[in-house]
Structures are given as C-alpha cells and as structure tokens.
Design a protein that fits this description.
Layout lengths: L2 H5 E2 L17 E6 L14 H9 L5 E2 L4 E2 H4 L2 E6 L6 H15 L4 E6 L3 H10 L4 E5 L19 H9 L4 E4 L6 H10 L2 E3 L1 H7 L1 H12 L5 E6 L21 H11 L4 E7 L10 H27 L1
Parallel strand pairs: 2-5, 2-6, 6-11, 7-8, 7-10, 8-9, 10-11
Antiparallel strand pairs: 1-5, 3-4
Helix pairs in contact: 2-11, 4-5, 5-6, 8-9, 9-10, 10-11
C-alpha cells in the first residue's frame, strides 16, 4: 500500500464537482483539515470541505488565459487523515503524502492552517523557490510556547530551505521580534504598502528576479493577505489588505509550469458570511490551475 493510499481519505465533495481520472490530468487536489495551533479563530479544518462544496457552482472557463478547466479537469484525492491535537504526527503525514505525490503531479492543496505549508515543504526534498502571500510575517521563533505554530511557519521554512529561497509578498502585520529577524536574515519581502507604491509591474519584476533560474516553485496563499472586506472568513483578519484584482494580476504573471504546489490556507468557514471567502479561494484555485496548464501546454508545443 502506498503512503497516499494509507493516509488519504475520500470526502463527500470533490473540487469543481468532478474528479477526473488521475492519469488524465496533471492536477491533483488534496485537502489538509488541520487547525490545531489556531490561536484566534478556529475552524480552518472545515475549509477543504466548504471550498470543494462552493467550487461546484463556479464556472471553469478562465478568460484571463483562455483555458477551460472543464476540459482539463482535476483529480481530487481527498483529505490527508489528520491527528487532531498532534501537530507533529499530522505534519509527518503531510510530509510523506506530499513528498510521494509531488514527484509526478501538480498539487492544489487546501488547508487548514498555515503550518501545513511547512510539512509540505519538508516533503518536496528538492530545490524549490517559495513565494508566500500573507498579511503576517509568521516568523516568530515560537508562539505561546510552541515552535510548530501557524505564527512560526515561515521561520521554520527558512530554517529548512534557506532564507535565499523564500519571498514574502503582501505582509502588513509584524511583531518587533519578526522585524529584527527580517533585518538580520535579509529575507526578501514586498509589503502591502510597497505593492501600492511600486505598482504591480515593478512587483512582478522583483518576483521574476527572485524566480530566475528556479526549477521548482511553491506558492502559498494565506487568505488573510486580502483585505477583510473581500475575505472576512479567515483565522486572523488584518485590515488594509490587498484587493482580489491585485492578487489575480500577480498570479497571472508569476504562475507557470514550474509551479509544483499551490496551497490555499486559513479560510475559516464558521466566520465566513455567505461563504464569500470560500468562493474567492475556490476561484483562486481554478485560475491557478488554468494558468499553470497554459504554461505547461505552451512548453510542450515548443518541444
């Protein structure tokens, strides 16, 4: 029995309402319903089910890149079986499953709290550039006495892959400890305020420079990067955030065939009026798949 057969469980809903044969699409969706370290609003463990549910009502044609995901489709492998209350065991399962599937698949991962990204990164086991869209730095050494917390995710990732392989886009909330770490480590970041002053074109140029010569790219989107007006249902909302058009424009420019994994984290359905945040997350996943597929197809046609 393979690791993903051992630790993946089927779910009542599948992403887009249709799960393609695994051999007929390059994309696999995985849910990770973990929120054991949530320190403010709990409930992101319900996000994989809710995002799958609402995705079935969205159109699948992506005008931005002229790709119809209904013809490409995705395979939904289900959820990783989480041991609630035991982050170490849960992260180990994430590492094993992601490590096995990412060898041959493009993965669309639905969290769950942000610490899942750390488990996924550990599972890749190869050179990867990581772009994180997040309202928070998540670079505390520990939080509430615990090192495996959503507030420490990027710190743990930097310790694993090196500061030169991580870029943070959209942060606007920092602790003094995090600012000191950023200054000393030299981690690359573009704040929300820098995005507004620089403009999308310059931000894309800086991201392109960061991704130059990258063979594999991991994109992690914490939904609190959006202003709460657009994404109220998140674990730790932070005012004065980005608008959807800014994030979609960035993704249009930076997503290509090098993206191995894209995750969406920290949607919190119990705090999400009218499922507005879940719909936005589902739309992001659809658009991301279309953009990566277009780049894959262009590369194949060029051979």
């Amino acid at each position: 029995m393979s690791l993903h057969e051992l630790y993946l469980v089927k779910t009542p809903y599948v992403f887009t309402g249709i799960s393609a044969d695994v051999h007929k699409t390059p994309f696999t969706v995985i849910g990770i319903p973990l929120d054991s370290s949530s320190s403010f609003r709990g409930g992101s463990r319900f996000a994989p089910a809710k995002i799958r549910q609402v995705s079935a009502s969205l159109e699948l044609y992506c005008l931005s890149v002229d790709i119809d995901l209904e013809k490409v489709l995705v395979h939904d492998a289900g959820d990783i079986a989480i041991v609630h209350g035991n982050i170490e065991t849960s992260l180990r399962r994430i590492e094993l499953v992601i490590g096995e599937l990412a060898k041959h698949r493009k993965l669309l991962v639905i969290g769950g709290e942000h610490i899942i990204t750390y488990g996924a990164i550990k599972g890749i086991g190869r050179d990867t550039k990581i772009i994180v869209l997040d309202a928070h730095a998540d670079m505390r050494y520990e939080y509430l006495g615990y090192k495996l917390s959503h507030a420490c995710t990027i710190r743990r990732i930097i310790e694993t892959v090196g500061v030169e392989n991580v870029m943070l886009v959209g942060p606007r909330a920092f602790s003094s400890e995090e600012l000191e770490f950023i200054r000393k480590s030299g981690v690359k970041l573009i704040t929300t305020y820098a995005i507004r002053s620089l403009g999308i074109r310059e931000v894309v140029r800086r991201i392109d420079d960061f991704l130059e010569n990258a063979k594999n790219v991991y994109v992690s989107i914490d939904m609190d990067v959006f202003d709460p007006a657009y994404a109220p249902g998140v674990q730790t909302p932070e005012p004065d955030g980005l608008a959807p058009w800014q994030v979609f424009t960035l993704l249009t420019r930076i997503l290509d065939e090098r993206v191995t994994i894209l995750d969406i984290v920290e949607v919190t359905p119990p705090y999400d009026p009218s499922d507005i945040t879940s719909f936005l997350a589902a739309k992001l996943l659809i658009e991301a798949a279309c953009k990566v597929y277009k780049s894959l197809r262009a590369k194949e046609q060029a051979l």
